Amino acid sequence: MTKSLPEFKYMSFDVVGTLIDFESGLTSCLQEIAAEAGVTIDGEEALTLYRAARYSEDASLFPDDLVRVYLAIAPDLGLPVDKRYGERLRDSARTWKAFPDSAAAMERLARDYRLIAMTNARRWAFDCFSAELGNPFHAAFTADDTGTEKPDPTFFESVFDFVAGEGASKSDILHVAQSQYHDIGVSRALGMTNCWIERRHAQKGYGGTIEPAEFTEPDYHFASMAGLAEAVAAARS
């Protein structure tokens, strides 16, 4: 039986893609560069190219890797192949916006749970994302902290060790994420209860997120963070 929402002590969160709208951040910056170059690009095509470039063998930590990614995809988009534009794409992460429902949902959830960030982004970028969200986190784990990236189980084990230090266990955590590949599949394999936030429910494909080898049916499923927050409120009423 799946645990009820009030039974959890913690909620852990994927940040980029679940709480922060990285797809809009990426495409907006690329479209600005395109406009300056006098060309037009399709946002979904850009995300498809991004996904293929981002998950290559020579990838480095995110979002620093966006410099390399830009140089890889610029020719196919008709954009100028110049490192300074790649640096501009990387630096745009500092101003990426949260989804409209994220900050309010996190504020509501923080009243009842200890919230843990689990992000493949580097710490400098996470600090910007956290500020955008209103700094709701009890603890945060980044690629800099863990030395690895999801879906590596080692990343999750760092969080398990942390909550163990507070007298809890992974069974006390609800893992919340939009990425089937990075989060939902591996959290299931590790015995966690999970919640899929299907941010692209009204769109086809996986956008800027790598497609999983197989789909994992989540324990909880919402189209937005607002949906999760409302379900928690209803369960606790």
Structure commentary:
The protein is of the alpha/beta class. The chain folds into 2 domains: about 5-20 and about 95-235, 3-Layer(aba) Sandwich (Rossmann fold); about 20-95, Orthogonal Bundle (DNA polymerase, domain 1). Helix content is about 45%, strand content about 10%. The protein is built from 10 helices and 6 strands, in the order E-H-H-H-H-H-E-H-E-H-H-E-H-E-E-H. The protein has a 6-stranded parallel β-sheet, with helices on both faces. Helix 9 links the parallel strand 4 (about 175) and strand 5. The two termini are about 20 Å apart. InterPro entries: HAD-like_sf, HAD-SF_hydro_IA, HAD_sf, S-2-haloacid_dehalogenase. GO terms for molecular function: hydrolase activity.
Reconstruct the topology from this structure.
Elements: E1 10-13, H1 22-37, H2 43-54, H3 66-77, H4 83-91, H5 102-109, E2 114-118, H6 123-132, E3 139-141, H7 143-146, H8 153-164, E4 173-177, H9 180-189, E5 193-197, E6 220-222, H10 225-236
Parallel strand pairs: 1-2, 1-4, 2-3, 4-5, 5-6
Compute the number of helices.
Answer: 10
Number of strands: 6
Q: Could you state the CATH homologous superfamily of the largest domain? A: HAD superfamily/HAD-like
Helical amount among residues, as a percent range?
Answer: 40-55%
Domains (count): 2
| Main sheet overview | 6 strands, parallel
Order of helices and strands: EHHHHHEHEHHEHEEH
Query: Could you say what the CATH architecture of the largest domain is?
Result: 3-Layer(aba) Sandwich
CATH classification, class level of the largest domain: Alpha Beta
Mean residue pLDDT: 96
InterPro entries: HAD-like_sf, HAD-SF_hydro_IA, HAD_sf, S-2-haloacid_dehalogenase
Keywords: Hydrolase
GO molecular function: hydrolase activity
Protein name: HAD family hydrolase
